[in-house]
């Protein structure tokens, strides 16, 4: 049976202080606990390290030899811990990040430079998939996912909640007319999603039911849906991170704001469960959460 760090520390402290009582005070333990630690260590080694008398403790020859090794082990351990603490400021390595194309374009890409200004030794690799991927298969450190999570093999951190907006371009509204009531949606051209079909359920009631859009134009990702809306192809329902700048600039108009049911889409960072998350990944997740809270968790943009 191998010696433990606690036993080595107890042995060294007893030698340095010259008594079980003084060693116990230094380590915040009891004298009897210190004595038991030393006895366990000697039993594992099969030697006597300290000769005990009523007046003093004396290192044996084996004890003197073992003390040198114990000091080196504890010194090396302390140096390793200091190196890891330092790596918090001087982290290096690659972070492989995956998300849907719109989130990569509108959120992560503008933040990469700011993150690397703080951590210049970290390399970033961005990959975009509009469908859920296997993180291990694609050698991905962290993925950004939307809505409710179902994969129990993943650990998740909630980054923020992003509001959904129903939007159309001013050109489309000028041609087809401004909507007055939710049921007016039934007479308009709608743009929706071809694969993630749950996104075609919009946060508004039509005829007493949650509105399930029947898009005349479909696309596989939100950026394409946004571009179609900007071009005046119809009305779309998109997350705030996609359209907030367009609404502020007047390129898109938020519709039915007095009748919409506020719905916030959850955005998570997910990664495989592991005992210790690499510092570079943890730093990026914390950075992203902070930046997202700055502009996605605020009040309405209209």
Global Rg: 31 Å
Please outline the major beta sheet. Answer: 7 strands, mixed
Class inferred from helices and paired strands: alpha/beta
Tally of DSSP β-strands? 13
Keywords for this structure?
302 residues; alpha/beta; seven-stranded mixed sheet; two-stranded antiparallel sheet; 41% helix
Write the layout of secondary structure elements.
Layout: H1 5-17, H2 20-27, H3 31-45, E1 50-52, E2 57-59, H4 61-86, E3 93-99, H5 101-118, E4 122-128, E5 142-146, E6 154-168, H6 170-176, E7 191-193, E8 201-206, E9 209-212, E10 217-219, H7 222-230, E11 236-239, H8 240-249, E12 253-254, E13 264-272, H9 279-296
Can you characterise this structure?
This protein has 302 residues and is an alpha/beta fold. The protein has helices at residues 5-17, 20-27, 31-45, 61-86, 101-118, 170-176, 222-230, 240-249, 279-296, and strands at 50-52, 57-59, 93-99, 122-128, 142-146, 154-168, 191-193, 201-206, 209-212, 217-219, 236-239, 253-254, 264-272. Strands 3, 4, 5, 6, 11, 12 and 13 form a seven-stranded mixed β-sheet that branches. Helix 1 crosses helix 4. It starts with a helix and ends in a 6-residue tail after the last helix. 29% of the residues are buried.
Brief summary:
This protein is of the alpha/beta class and 302 residues long. The protein has helices at 5-17, 20-27, 31-45, 61-86, 101-118, 170-176, 222-230, 240-249, 279-296; strands spanning 50-52, 57-59, 93-99, 122-128, 142-146, 154-168, 191-193, 201-206, 209-212, 217-219, 236-239, 253-254, 264-272.
